[in-house]
Amino acid sequence: MPLSDFFSQEGKIRRLGKKLTEKYGPPENRQKAIETLAEIGTPEALAALLLRFTIASDPGITDAEEKQRVFELLVDAGDEALQPLRDFVRRQESVSWALRVLAELVPPAELVGIVVGELTRLGAEYTRDPEKKVQLINWLAENHPEADPRVGPALLPFIEDMSDDVKLAAVRALARQKLEIAREPFLLALVQPEQSARVRQELLAALADCGFGVQGHREKVEALLQEPFVLDKGGLVKRR
Prior knowledge:
The protein is an all-alpha fold. Helices cover 63% and strands 2% of the residues. β1 and β2 form a beta hairpin.
């Protein structure tokens, strides 16, 4: 590294970011880096500060305290933190803390747009670690059960995801909204020969909770019913 770069602000931010992500290093080093990056306060420094959300350190109580401090400092940074936060949601795998910060800085509808946009970008294709999709889907389910019109269409593709964990999250989120557009996708996923047993059970639970009929698929659904689910005369899945 050239000497001029070492003494530049860019170099300083890079070094502080490295200290911030040393999970086995002394806590005081990370904590000093947190405060210094917040004092610098540029978008580049705030982007480095966000990296604290990418590691888990021991002990757990210190880890939680440091992340909470980063959360507070980013909220205090206001608009200056918005672009770093958007970039973080796009680039990183664990995004729950960043979404919590954004919830303090932007209107709910705008944040729904950010989450829906990222889910759309990710799509239902295979990813090595499905946790990001699960976090985004669960956030939508927990924060906007009132059925924002963008949410249902964004969730539907994930019923066919390669990961069972993603499928389960999507089915549960859609079931909370009871959207009629989910009925046929639920049934098609249920009768897929390769579908896993736990996803089938979740789909049966969703059909029962939503009060969706099985029209067009009755014979196949009857063959797949497992306790505690039964099919009534009207073609509705019920729990015993």
